[in-house]
Amino acid sequence: PGYESYTPSPGTATSITLELPLRDPEDVDYGTPGTDVATNVNFYNRTKATPTVTTKVIDDEGDINSPVVTSITLGESVRDTVTVTGINGFAPTGTVDFFVSDDGGSSWTEFDSDVALTPDTGSATAVSAIYTPDHADTYYFRAEYDPGADPNYLAAGSSDFDEPLTVGKADSTTTTKLIPDDGDINSPVVTSITLGDGVKDTVTVTGLGGSFPMPSNGVEFQVVLPGEDPNNESDWDYFDGENLDGAGQAISDTYTPLTTGQYYFRAVYLGDLNYKSSKSGNTAEPLTVDPRS
Questions:
Q1: Residues paired with 174 in a beta bridge
Q2: How confident is the model at residue 150 (pLDDT cuts 50, 70, 90)?
Q3: Residue 73 and residue 71: Cα distance in Å, rounded?
Q4: How many domains does the chain have?
Q5: Which among 34, 59, 128, 157 is least surrounded, fewest beta carbons within 10 Å?
Q6: Whether residue 134 is found in the same domain as residue 99
Q7: What is the pTM of this model?
Q8: Averaged pLDDT, 74-80
């Protein structure tokens, strides 16, 4: 009499024959006399299970319990979260890799890897590092579970399109400055001229800065003539259109007033894929045109 322990190897079905000792009628330790016993006992080690992987994009300051985020503005950030759910109360162990796509799922970029799971009852969770989109677009996120040495579970991943995130355009700022007609972007501002002289308007459009894209596309230069109201949109007249350079700047063609009096200038940025349109102040660029002596 006695016992031995046996642990089946993972992923196989194992049949074990146990030969139990004869029940001796004279041995009171065996209880009531009976027949000889020999029993085959089959042990089955189940195949590893596939866990369920669910994901959720959250605010960059959130945690696993934060509400889902589906849209942000360029310049803001998010985190991805994952819950790996097992079976029969066995919490999966291992790590998770996080991926993002900005081309509709055609290609994926890993932005955080080997994030250890935190076990819970029957499941385990992880939160990614912060991810900051670098342009306005629709992004998709997914996570891949790596069980490592976990004896119970297979590798698994979330769906490619469970986590869409819309990144909207950021605000832009448009500032302007009148300069002499022979000046450049660095010339001092001009606030008055004599009738017959000309001026140019300059514009600088700023975005988020840093590693984010510069504002691009076109600007319109506009003017309000003497006697008209700069706060009335219908009083603004277009006099030139230019494209921004790589620094987000542009200079208009020369504008030569035809009468004396008070003029106002402004620039309207038309926006691009990453930035909303904006305009300079209606009264930020006054110009007094004096009579010629």
A1: 205
A2: very high
A3: 7
A4: 3
A5: 34
A6: yes
A7: 0.82
A8: 99
